[in-house]
Design a protein that fits this description.
- This protein is α/β, with parallel strands linked by helices.
- α4 runs parallel beside α5 and α7 crosses α12.
- The chain contains 14 helices and 13 strands.
- It folds into 2 domains: about 200 residues, Rossmann fold (3-Layer(aba) Sandwich); about 160 residues, 3-Layer(aba) Sandwich (Rossmann fold).
- The strands form 2 sheets. The chain has a 7-stranded parallel beta sheet, sandwiched between helices. A 6-stranded parallel beta sheet has the order 10-9-8-11-12-13, with helices on both faces.
Length: about 375
Amino acid sequence: MARRLLIIVHEALFFATHRLPVGRAMLARGWEVHVAAPPDADMAARLQAEGFILHPIPLARGGQNPLAEFRLMLALLALLRRLRPMLVHHVSMKPVIWGGMASRLARVKAAVHAITGLGFVFIRQDFKARLLRAVIRRLYRFALGHPNGRAIFQNPDDLALFQANAMVLPGRWCMIKGCGVDMAAFPARPEPSEHVQAPPVVMFPARLLGDKGVNEFAAAATELRAEGVAARFVLVGRRDPDNPTDIGEARLKQWVDSGLMEYWGFSTDMAATLAQADLIVMPSYREGLPRGLIEAAATQRAIITADVPGCREVVRHEQNGLLVPVQDAAATAAAMRRLILDADLRRALGRRGRAIAEAEFSVEHFVSESLKAYDAVLQPLGEQV
């Protein structure tokens, strides 16, 4: 059988930002590396130029139409039967569930599943979310039940939840915290306000979703503006209309038109963008392990985030940032006020964040641990990465 790896992701851009170093490492070892993702002509051209082979799949990130989901699984099953990869790596919820099921049905010899977060279905408590959770738990049990598979978790809370609900087999998992950041690409930078008399830039760098804490950020900015605290509040990220917690164009326009916040749009150069901030705030409701916070720490920025799974793996309270209670705008405002007004503390936290990022979240560590996960399922086949 050809040494062929298929990586299934929900978005080609996500592969480029979160899994590209692993793909490159496999290419360097002489493997064919295939990537399945929704169509994206620009990204496909970029990845194909590096030697990856792209396959379009009908995956709608926020879609919940059962027929569309069934068509996705059939498309993945057809792709697997045509490619016959030795190893399949499913990344994020839909690829893990539908790709994992298809991999079992196609009798793929080895599978790795990356649990990168649980999404709004596991955050919200309304009836629809509870019903979907019951269905998804059963789907996960089948998808992760591959006889030669490994599930990668990014934080211990997600692992505990999967174990408590019997969604992962005993001993068939490993822990890799985050997806690694190139420390040379995200160098430590001084705050822009350190040598210039200017209000600090307080930045929210994430998709503009309620579940990412953007509403708490806006409420905190409103409170600090009313108090006369001097700062610029900036949103960096894209909307996600497929997500039910997307803020909507009207609310974004109201925030910007009122002068409450600036909107810098989606950044294709986060290293340069983060360097323009003095303080990073992302009070998300739950994460796998957010790359954006690792990038902020690497850039030597203090961080305010919620004390929730994923976020607290990066931010240690009073060491490299401040943790606040989830969905607590008043506490978020208090933390922002403290670090806006105390530049010495803010910069000390940022310096410690850089040290933590270098020690724990380098891209080299991530690639090494990912290849170990591959080896765990390839060795029974008499193969190694």
